[in-house]
Amino acid sequence: MGKHSNFLEEIKQKKLTNYLPFLVLIVLSIGLEIATKGVLFSLANIGTMTNTIFPMIIVAMGAVFVYSHGGIDLSVGSLLGLCMMETLLIVGDSNVLTAGKMAVILLATIATGFLVGLLNGLMTAKLKLQPLIMTLCMNYILRGIVTAVTELNPAYAPAQFSRYDNIYVKFILILVIVAGVILVFEKTRYGKNLKAIGGNEQTAKQSGIKVDNAKIAAYIIVGVTVAIAGSINVIRASMVRANTGSGFEIDIFLALLLGGIPLSGGAKVRSWCAVIGCVILVILESGLLLCGLQHEHITILKGLLFIGMVAMTFERSRGEAIA
């Protein structure tokens, strides 16, 4: 009877852990909606939040593949800035964005994202560099390129470029990417292999999984998602400065943690958690801004929240991350 009771208690605890991000989202939404006197979920602010969350969800869904095997990618912020800059350089002074030019932009930026992801993957998987160190170095390299090109002369989009900013297209693109990632990550052998690597890399190798190839592919995927997000997001931003995308990598990291994705990866990773985490973070930021806080104060709070989330997902007794 005691064993049966313990088993039921364990199941209840696991279910509570799985639903915790949803509970946080509901409580946070209600609290901030009251605090902002109904402004948070007004049509105007929903549009603003949608534009903010668009690149975040796309990149977070790609990042799931990296974080699920216990990796990390801190180069996504500078890569986003680089792809946005590349888009504006291709557009030039033209006010017309034809289907052909958009195809060229996507191909060029995706090639850039692919190359950066490939380099990150090769250096971490084949040369065994620590992902934290490698992607941080890549972040500085890409940031240096963006700064060198835009520091004195920021890249601006043509005057009427913003007319191509369509929230419905963004929404459809998000749905397609989220559905595709969930399908691949949750239903295919590749997704299961990444979880197995995150659970125990040596066991995964012994079971015949090509660990290095799986890791390289994961970094390529996140690189491609950053490229897609950057090439579309620049239409709204209309300009690229030296600091464009700065801090975006921390937002992605924090969103994944808020969604309940464990630092160590493994079987507990769920791709949809990335969406929930992004929504929580964007609602939190928007609500705090509407409550009168400055961006600088919110940055401090995000740093404190980041420390808290890392502490909560780290089991000190075993020295490894848990869900």
UniProtKB/TrEMBL annotation:
It is found in: Cell membrane. Its main location: membrane. InterPro entries: ABC_transp_permease. Pfam families: BPD_transp_2. The chain crosses the membrane at residues 20-40, 46-67, 74-91, 103-122, 167-185, 216-235, 247-265, 272-291. Keywords: Cell membrane, Membrane, Transmembrane, Transmembrane helix. It is a multi-pass membrane protein. This is ABC transporter permease. It comes from Ruminococcus gauvreauii.
